[in-house]
Design a protein that fits this description.
55 residues; mainly alpha; 2 helices; 89% helix
Length: 55
């Protein structure tokens, strides 16, 4: 379960990075960037909660 939590954290960080990429390169709207960032933060937080629950 620990590795599942770490995978969720990695996906969350990658999604936030993708949100930055979309905002800079693809000239997306601010709303699209915020939605992608919030999804990334939510997935990362889920992984963090799972990690804390295990240990």
């Amino acid at each position: 379960m620990f590795y599942v939590a770490k995978i969720f954290e990695a996906i969350g960080v990658a999604d936030v990075g993708y949100a930055i990429y979309v905002g800079i390169v693809q000239h997306a709207t601010m709303a699209e960037e915020i939605v992608l960032t919030l999804i990334g933060v939510g997935v990362f937080s889920l992984g963090r909660a799972l990690e804390n629950k295990i240990t």
